[in-house]
Design a protein that fits this description.
Its EC number is 1.11.1.6. Heme binds at residues 72, 112, 161, 358, 362, 369. It catalyses: 2 H2O2 = O2 + 2 H2O. Helix 2 packs antiparallel against helix 3 (184-191) and helix 4 packs parallel to helix 10. By secondary structure, the chain is α+β, with helices and mostly antiparallel strands. It has helices at residues 55-65, 161-168, 184-191, 197-203, 251-260, 264-274, 290-295, 329-334, 353-369, 450-458, 461-476, 481-491, 496-506; strands at 78-87, 106-115, 130-138, 141-148, 218-219, 224-227, 233-242, 280-288, 315-324, 347-348. It starts with 54 loop residues before the first helix and ends in a 30-residue tail after the last helix. Strands 1, 2, 3, 4, 5, 6, 7, 8, 9 and 10 form a ten-stranded antiparallel beta sheet that branches. A hairpin with a 5-residue loop joins strand 6 (224-227) and strand 7 (233-242). Helices cover 24% and strands 14% of the residues. The relative contact order is 0.13. The site of protoporphyrin IX containing FE has 28 residues, from strand 2, strand 3, strand 4 and helix 9.
Length: 536
């Protein structure tokens, strides 16, 4: 039917439909039965055993016993807020995605920031990558931009993700350490995966100890596609630019804060919003054609590479404001389900082999984390636009679908949605070559060091010193000497001064550089000042 008038949509992002306020109400059981005494269980006599028939006690305890759900397998610790995205201009020549349809258009969002490795109760200021996940509740369905605060990733292929996470989570025999790095298994794995070198440079830089969740950049990481109404498409990289600037802690501060207030980032975000000091980010795009991409000295399907801003400048297209804290941490922050498969007409995937694996992973894990296939009905996950299909039943189904027809084609009508109507995904014109099935990688994926060097050379002198200090600290915690040497041999491919300083700190000689995985002539990039925090 017709969409409800503005402000009356039961799920317009405010979640008014499901808010409960019990202030001043009488206490009841889950069945609505009044509870007169919430202090004492029912006993056979004042000093007698508790009676089995005390359904009030049993209901209260039983529900409590089941309060916990599994934490996320990664990004378990997070903090979130509501807000909106406002487009600066009509981008329809580039994309038909609803949030960019006209200047000034507002789309509700819910954003969750997270650390990757720590458990749900872990400390906020650990050295780690931060998740930056944005759910846009658009009028053509939910679009999730599930990004990080670092623009590249450790690995190039989803096949390696479980290995990476097994290496970076606390070691399985003793559950130590809580932090992302500083242990044997993390450095063992990464020192055997030279493709992680670029990401390691970022992870050892000040970027991995942000001052505030309000002061981090966000990145979609992968190359995506924008598609316009005619099916024309360009590649795109997404960037969030904090209006408060990008700021970090220094390591000494991060450690002290961690001891004094392990909720430092969560508290900071909450208090800023309560005080009306709303965090804001601008959304910027790097768009480029397939022909341009073919000329780049790296492969745009490789998530360990950035597209330097010197090559493709950023275009700012809108602004996001976070202006409302959640009412309930569990209902919203914990139960929100972001998914890279949640795209809307106008946005599309590329063949990035890391992205392709993610498209599968999120919904799969959420089926177990959120208890079955109906978690899209949980209020924080439900779209704000009308949603109709022939899916039925399953654990915890809330919707009461009417009518007897839940299949297509049918000749009976009533109750069944039909596929005609609004234009959905247009077919996308792509030129990417179709080849034989293969388990392998494009040759340019094997250049693991050029952009690690680009990052190093783009840092100011004190930022470089912080990176040296971080490698020294982290590798000094590694108990197996061979792992330290292997990591030094990777650093020897990045920069002489870097490897010498780290080796000296560890009391080791500089080993020969690790053999390169490619014989291709490697690009040498001019330093990119935009990669330094000083430019942000
Ligand atoms: C969370 C898988 C790579 C960003 C998760 C979760 C899984 C997962 C299973 C937990 C989801 C949940 O329980 O709701 C994967 C796989 C990857 C991958 C298989 C590679 C193949 C990445 C990359 C990024 C990223 C490259 C950044 C661009 C995030 C974020 C979250 C997350 C931000 C937390 C979402 C939230 O706040 O709820 N990932 N991930 N992941 N992932 Fe990934």
């Amino acid at each position: 039917g017709a969409p409800p008038p503005p402000g009356t949509n039961p799920n317009d992002g405010s979640l008014e439909r499901v808010r409960a306020d019990s202030a001043g109400q009488r206490l009841t059981t889950n069945q609505g039965v009044p509870v007169a005494d919430n202090q004492n269980s029912l006993k056979s006599s004042v000093r007698g055993p508790t009676l089995m028939e005390d359904f009030i006690l049993r209901e209260k305890i039983t529900h409590f016993d089941h309060e916990r759900i599994p934490e996320r397998v990664v990004h378990a610790r997070g903090s979130a807020a509501h807000g909106y995205f406002e487009a600066y201009e009509d981008l329809s020549s580039l994309t038909r995605a609803a949030p960019f349809a006209q200047a000034g258009k507002r789309t509700p969002v819910f954003v969750r920031f997270s650390t990757v490795a720590g458990e749900r109760g872990s400390t906020d200021t650990a050295r780690d990558v931060r998740g930056f996940a944005v759910k846009f509740y658009t009028d053509e369905g939910n679009w999730d931009l599930v990004g990080n605060n670092i623009p590249v990733f450790f690995i190039q292929d989803a096949m390696k993700f479980p290995d990476l996470v097994h290496a970076l989570k606390p070691e399985p025999h003793n559950g130590i350490p809580q932090a992302a790095s500083a242990h044997d298994t993390f450095w063992d794995f990464t020192s055997l995966m030279p493709e992680s070198m670029h990401m390691l440079m970022w992870a050892m830089s000040d970027r991995a100890i942000p001052r505030s969740l309000r002061m981090m950049q966000g990145f979609g990481v992968h190359t995506f596609r924008l598609v316009n109404a005619d099916g024309g498409s360009v590649f795109v990289k997404f960037h969030w630019l904090p209006l408060a600037g990008t700021h970090s802690l220094v390591w000494d501060e991060a450690m002290k804060i961690s001891g004094a207030d392990s909720d430092f980032h969560r508290r900071d975000l909450w208090e800023a919003i309560e005080a009306g000091c709303y965090p804001q980010w601008e959304l910027a795009l790097q768009t480029f054609t397939e022909e341009q991409a073919a000329q780049f000295p790296f492969d745009v399907l490789d998530a360990t590479k950035i597209v330097p801003e010197e090559l493709v400048p950023l275009k700012v297209v809108g602004r996001m404001t976070l202006n409302r804290n959640p009412d309930n941490f569990f209902a919203e922050t914990e139960q929100v389900a972001f998914c890279t498969a949640h795209i809307i007409p106008g946005i599309d995937f590329t063949n990035d082999p890391l992205l392709q694996g993610r498209i599968h992973s999120y919904v799969d894990t959420q089926i177990s984390r959120l208890g079955g296939p109906n978690f899209h009905e949980i209020p924080i996950n439900a779209p704000v636009c009308p949603m109709h299909n022939n899916q039925r039943d399953g654990m915890h189904r809330q919707t009461i679908n009417r009518g007897k027809v839940a299949y297509e084609p049918n000749s009976l009508g009533g109750g069944c949605p039909h596929q005609a109507g609004m234009a959905g995904f247009t077919s996308v014109r792509v030129q990417e070559a179709q080849e034989d099935k293969v388990r392998g990688k494009p040759e340019l994926f094997a250049d693991h060091y050029s952009q690690a060097r680009l990052f190093w050379q783009s840092q100011t002198r004190h930022e470089q010193q912080h990176i040296i200090n971080a490698f020294r600290f982290e590798l000094s915690k590694v108990m197996v000497p061979g792992i330290r040497v292997r990591m030094l041999s990777m650093l020897a491919n990045v920069d002489d001064a870097l490897v010498s300083a780290v080796a000296a700190g560890l009391g080791l000689p500089v080993p020969p550089p690790q053999p390169l995985a490619t014989s291709l002539p490697l690009p040498s990039y001019p330093p990119s000042p935009a990669l330094s925090l000083m430019a942000r």
